[in-house]
Design goal:
Layout: E1 5-6, E2 11-14, E3 20-23, H1 29-41, E4 57-61, H2 67-76, E5 80-84, H3 89-99, E6 105-108, E7 111-113, E8 117-123, E9 132-133, H4 140-150, E10 158-166, H5 167-174, E11 179-184, H6 190-195, H7 199-202, E12 205-213, H8 221-230, E13 233-238, H9 241-247, E14 249-256
Length: 260
């Protein structure tokens, strides 16, 4: 992976696809390096059957600083990506769209949940990839590894209030009738997203890739599995032992049976 270069306000990192990621704050460097390795180097989203192609429409819930969008933008070509993100990382995402002259990505600044309203979000200044609802408690081992990555005491999280909308509301704003891929990575928010989405809403999505979390007493990924199966998806659960035991996370890759 290319080396980080410091700028007057933050940093920049050349990406393997020829784009450049710009971080607005030096505190974003650890998260950026982690996500670049996961998406561009290890190819997390390069999963057979989940390819995105020119003309495709993609919705990215939990878009964070936009690294998935930077990876996906050249692939969809004249298609479109809609990035949904409630936290201050949206500022970095939008800066990267300008930096790389990207015109096939739109942004919506909100969280997605079971109902319209607001809730309190915890933002981690030095590892924004784990921003989550204030009423969720991350796995202790996850907190330990964050500290290990920094090798020092990290800044405490910041509480912010954010707007919350339903998946139906977001879909209506996009004006998409059919979506090739719905990506969800929102640190426990996936349960409310699916709970608030009807079968009629979910039928608009051909494929769903979702990171699930079990960081609250009510979280059980089998609830997500049953909900997607009931909505007409055939799915695979991927849960490496390390993620299962220490981070309490995993992945769900779902395909609509009538869109295979």
């Amino acid at each position: 992976m290319s080396e980080l270069a410091k700028t007057s306000n933050g940093f920049s990192i050349p990406l393997p696809n020829g784009m450049t990621f710009v971080g607005l704050h030096s505190t974003q460097a650890v998260s950026a390096k982690f996500l670049i390795k996961e998406i561009f180097v290890r190819g997390y989203y390069d999963k057979p059957g989940f390819e995105i192609s020119p003309g495709d429409r993609v919705i990215d819930i939990g878009a964070n600083m936009g690294l998935f969008a930077l990876w996906a933008s050249p692939r969809v070509g004249d298609g479109e990506i809609v990035c949904v993100e409630p936290s201050s990382t949206m500022d970095t995402l939008q800066a990267n769209l300008l930096q790389n002259s990207i015109h096939n990505v739109r942004t919506i600044r909100c969280a997605v949940g079971a109902k319209e309203g607001t809730f309190e979000l915890l933002e981690y200044p030095e590892f924004n990839g784990v921003n989550h609802r204030a009423d969720f408690v991350p796995a202790p081992w996850g907190q330990f590894f964050i500290r290990l990555l920094h090798r020092r005491k990290v800044l405490p999280p910041v509480r912010v209030e954010c707007e919350c909308r339903t998946l139906e509301s977001v879909l209506q704003e996009t004006k998409f009738d059919r979506v090739r891929l719905l990506k969800i990575d929102c640190e426990g928010g996936e349960y409310d997203i699916l709970a608030g989405a009807s079968n009629d809403v979910l039928r608009h999505f051909d494929r769903i890739c979702m990171e699930f979390h079990e960081i609250h007493a009510s979280h059980d990924h089998r609830v997500l599995v049953r909900r997607l199966e009931q909505a007409g998806f055939q799915l695979t659960v991927v849960r490496p032992w390390f993620d299962r035991l220490f981070l309490r996370t995993g992945g769900i890759w779902a395909v609509r049976k009538d869109h295979r």
